[in-house]
Amino acid sequence: MADSLDAGTRDEEAGSISPARIALPPKVALINSIVARNDAISASAIDTYRALTANDAYRVSLFCYRNDYPEIPSHIVSSVNDLLFHRDYLDADILLWHFGITYDLFNAVMVGNGRARRVVCFHNVTPREFVPQRSWATIDKSLAQCHLLRDAEEVWAVSGVNAEVAREFGVEADRIRDMPLVVESGPLKRPSDKTKDLITILFVGRFVRAKGVLELLQAVEGLLDVGGVPFRLELAGNIDFSDPDYVKQVRAFIEGKGLGEIVTMHGTVDDDTLARLYAEAHILAIPSYHEGFCKPVVEALRAGCIPVGYAAYNLPYVANGFGRLVPPGDVTSLEAALRDLIRALPGALESPHASCLRLDRGTISLTSLARQIQNYTAQFAAARIGLDMRGRLKHITTSDRSMIGSNYR
What are the residue boundaries of the Glycosyl transferase family domain, all occurrences included (predicted)? Predict the structure, then answer.
């Protein structure tokens, strides 16, 4: 590495070998567009920073346009030129980008710094059919930049679906590694610890068409005659990253249909409030049309919630059969799945050892569900993923370039 020192040097006056000097850790330039609160890619970039700096394994310099986390040191840059000529970028042994939406700093993956190994953590891009027309240009630019994935020695796909997309953009399979997101946020709670007096449905995500919030409200409207089982719906999402027109439509639907007594639209919430919402909820509603990973599903499972939504993109994989997923756009089936769970949960909570919950993986008891969820969600622990990240970086920095994927250019 650039800062490695000789294992030993001769002390001329003493005529002896001095103690071996310890080589400094390799340098990593970690690059993302912004590091913002309540943003999934930003959270992943922070998790990467913490994983690589654990035990002083690597010296990490974070580059971004904006950083909302003062406790995370960073270099604020305004252009790709600022990045390319920055000393900590030029001296880096590893260049690691997070990518899920267009930003100019990602163009630097084409040239690197002349010596470092290049890695991209790929979060996927939402297709243009799921975003407003005014955002199509941004999506088109993002998809065009996806071709730059081929310039990296290694691509870390946060899900199997994203790995498939990377291959579609020309990245050979032997240069793609699975690297799921870290999920340790939210409370740990067993499903059987929830109240049986009021069933709570929770939505967590941006208020955009791709998340299916209006369709969720249509399904909830149809549940008003569920009878005998009181329920409520809580909506939590980052307003800053939502579509303002869609937010207006959601609010108008709630008011126009008289759903205000059972639906609460929280908008952006802090971490403590979100943890409380997860802890109180029985069901996570996620009728989304596109998810590259979907961190809320794992957060909800950790909190003892059952996911109900659309079987789109990565949702069937991340839900892992622990919920009820229906064909995308099928509001009638979404309503039926919610109705079935709302009716079944009070009995399941009354008798947690009885196999009476019908989920995608079969009929199961709350006790068995809790045990299986605990085993499943352990794979998203920071310690485990951090170990994988550090292991991969050690491999690519100590391997000959010709051995890192057959189509390295």
Answer: 190-342
Domain ranges, ordered by start, for the chain: 23-182+382-403, 191-380
> Which residues of the chain register pLDDT less than 50?
1-21, 406-409
Q: Which fold has domain 191-380?
A: Rossmann fold (3.40.50)
**CATH class name, domain 23-182+382-403:** alpha beta
| Helix 213-222 and helix 331-350, axial crossing angle in degrees, nearest 10 | 60
d(CA 108, CA 110): 5
Same fold across 23-182+382-403 and 191-380: yes
Q: 318-329: per-residue pLDDT in tens? A: 999 999 999 999
8 A C-beta contact, residue 237 and residue 275:
no
| SS3 (DSSP) at 191 | helix
> Maximum CA pair distance of the chain?
92
First to last CA, the chain: 22
Dist CA 165 CA 142 (whole Å):
13
How much is the CA Rg of the chain, to the nearest whole Å? 24
